[in-house]
Amino acid sequence: MEExxxxxxxxxxxxxxxxxxxxxxxxxILGSLGHVSNITKAVGNTNxxxxxxxxxxxxxxxxxxxxxxxxxxxxxSSDTDLNSTKQTSxxxxxxxxxxxxxxxxxxxxxxxxxEKDASNLIDQDHTTFNTDVKQILxxxxxxxxxxxxxxxxxxxxxxxxxxxxxxxxxxxxxxxxVKSVWSNTTFSIDPPASDNDxxxxxxxxxxxxxx
Length: 211
Prior knowledge:
Strand order of the largest sheet: 1-5-2-4-3
Largest sheet: 5 strands, mixed
Strand content: 5-15%
Number of strands: 5
Helix content: 40-55%
């Protein structure tokens, strides 16, 4: 019985973490849309056990997957020729989580992580990467290659965007601060046709949101 109860407690811990991270992520997204949400605060003030009791097995699995199925390594589009010298834009995710996410995950695990310590870990990732990249991005003749760090991210995302020759992308994983490397791709969608009465009602209900 102890083993069974321990397993349940562990699963609950994982789901609690997923709920917290999900709420935090939702607040980032809604905030960027121009609508500030109280989701994060709500989860903090809500009895998590009550939330868990109302979740279906499918919901538990989906929430748990958010933190247990994180991608690592190269996440590069198949359209990218990794043998090419063409300058290619990528997004690099570092190993440490953004401050608020790191604090939530530490708390769920029964640990304490101050905002300052979490921020220092992020700064350390950036310092390590900036040092490593000067050494790991070299050609076959051990000469440095052209690259540019375009932007650094430390708040909702910990990492950088950069441009470098495609055949150097795999070398980025040699830095101990790098968790994942993603293709930097821009997506766009066409707005739906507005000659639908139900659609017009839906649009009116979200009039306060930024397009």
